[in-house]
């Protein structure tokens, strides 16, 4: 796939106007306050005893609407004292899988909380066990991007981003967490959630790792990306012509370009210039609006896989250097 988005010199300065809703601050303040009316109720039990050098717990906590959200908590078994912790969010359709999938962070000396995305984990490589009891039964295109898209209060990603904030709150309560060193991390949808949490609760996030993030500059992305998940939104807009602007106004509440402007933690971004799923212009838009210290790794010849293992290595090294 050749480069199809803006030329690189234009991307390097691309910072489109944000479509920040007038009620953005009030909307999210009320949403998070509502979630915090419920006790976090973090529970856990030992798991994966076969991993002799990694201590694993099967954790759950109360997310949006007091719904239970599942997660794995892994930390180096022989670590003395508190350790830096990464809250790991997942790509579209993925679930937390098994502890074996998440050994990189504890092998590098970090704890990690791997958080299920509600309703997902049934059609990607890893299974999930967390349902989505919330939301209406209004029509939507198969998938998650258009669930409740005509009403910000009903929108699927309102629940997901709230779960993300609660996940960071939960991570901070877990034994062995260094409360001064808590990072959020993710790729694609996971990058969108990490970015969202960084903007919604900057006081909770000490670092952010945001690889090829989804849900950034969505109004442009849906006009140039025809692969899923944006294809879901495009199909909805085609068939709900009179409600198109209403749907886009809902998504404005979760767009990474706006959330980035409210984030303050040091951040590592990455972008792939041949990415047909999350257009490069969206990543650059969020990156340029990001209000905290930041750096960007560019992969000129990659599609949505981005830097793959190289991005993983860069993430570990960046966080080790940041917190050394």
From TrEMBL:
Q: Which Gene3D superfamilies match?
A: alpha/beta hydrolase (3.40.50.1820)
Q: What protein name does the entry list? A: Acetylxylan esterase
Q: Where is the Acetyl xylan esterase domain?
A: 1-321
One Pfam family of this chain: AXE1
Q: Which SUPFAM superfamilies match?
A: alpha/beta-Hydrolases (SSF53474)
């Amino acid at each position: 796939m050749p480069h199809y988005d803006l030329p690189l010199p234009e991307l390097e300065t691309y910072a489109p106007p944000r479509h920040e809703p007038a009620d953005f601050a009030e909307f999210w303040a009320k949403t998070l306050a509502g979630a915090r009316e419920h006790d976090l109720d973090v529970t856990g039990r030992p798991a994966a005893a076969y991993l002799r050098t990694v201590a694993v717990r099967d954790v759950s906590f109360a997310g949006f609407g007091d719904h239970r959200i599942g997660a794995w908590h892994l930390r180096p078994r022989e670590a003395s004292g508190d350790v830096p912790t990464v809250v790991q969010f997942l790509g579209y359709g993925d679930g937390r899988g098994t502890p074996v999938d998440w050994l990189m962070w504890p092998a590098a000396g970090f704890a990690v909380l791997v958080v299920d995305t509600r309703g997902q984990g049934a059609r990607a490589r890893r299974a999930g066990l967390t349902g989505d009891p919330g939301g209406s039964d209004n029509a939507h295109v198969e998938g998650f991007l258009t669930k409740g898209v005509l009403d910000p209060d009903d929108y699927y990603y309102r629940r997901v981003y709230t779960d993300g904030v609660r996940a960071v709150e939960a991570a901070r309560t877990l034994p062995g967490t260094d409360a001064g060193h808590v990072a959020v991390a993710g790729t694609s949808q996971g990058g969108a959630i990490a970015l969202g949490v960084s903007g919604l609760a900057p006081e909770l996030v000490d670092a952010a790792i945001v690889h090829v993030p989804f849900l950034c500059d969505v109004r442009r992305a849906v006009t140039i990306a025809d692969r899923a998940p944006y294809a879901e939104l495009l199909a909805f807009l085609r068939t709900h012509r009179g409600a198109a602007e209403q749907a886009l106004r809902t998504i404005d509440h979760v767009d990474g370009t706006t959330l980035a402007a409210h984030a303050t933690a040091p951040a590592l971004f990455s972008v792939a210039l041949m990415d047909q799923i999350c257009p490069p212009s969206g990543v650059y838009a969020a990156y340029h609006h990001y209000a905290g210290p930041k750096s960007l790794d560019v992969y000129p010849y990659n599609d949505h896989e981005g830097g793959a293992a190289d991005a993983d290595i860069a993430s570990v090294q960046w966080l080790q250097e940041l917190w050394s």
